[in-house]
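Subject: sequence -> structure tokens, single chain

Hey, anyone have a minute? Need the predicted structure for the following. Not urgent.
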Amino acid sequence: MGNANVSNVTIRPEEADFFAKLARDWWNPKGPMASLHQVNPVRLAFVRDAIDAHWPDAARAARPLAGKAALDIGCGAGLVCEPLARLGADVTGVDAAAENIAAASQHAQGVGLDIRYMAGEVGSLDIGTFDLVTCLEVIEHVADKPAFLRDLAARLAPGGLLVMSTPNRTVASRVLLVGAAEAVGYVPRGTHRWHDFVTPEELEALLRDAGLTVTARRGIAWRPGKRLHLSEDMSLNYILSARRA
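Reply:
Had a minute. Here:
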């Protein structure tokens, strides 16, 4: 769980333990992490758009991240790392729960992908810098958000691209993402603490303080018939890209 010097930056131990208990079922699309499997294509569509906008020369390439290094922070069992590897990146995944790293490594090996996975806190690992850093559905589990974002910014290479997603702190998210979603089993009970959610304006200010500027922002919304999709509606969840200011 990192060393004592970075304890104020870390994912809360009880939250890492919570997700560690789900590790063995992470890749089951009908298991307790089903919601992640449903949102993952929507998030990855934004990631691909952000890559194409940031590196226009690679926009038409099947492997636009070839020759680039990517880091996924809070990687879980690798649902984002594996698509990034298929886009050509040299991928590193970091997670606070060793059980998730074990599950991620086993799955990558099973599908023939060479991905470096490491257990620990990003601020305490000597892993260098990366062209692309992704941090999806993580910031809401972090105790010291400014310190975490400084560590995240320090992992971004000059000219690099950051993509983050997180739930918004709204009445709608409290009712639907926390109350209803847990009540019907859409997400495991205890997944979310609404008071730890960050609004887009708050996150943009925190990123600015860390030396980063937001370049694009979209909502991840849901409606019957269209299901989860990218939208201008950010009341439940949103995803953004950023670069060095």
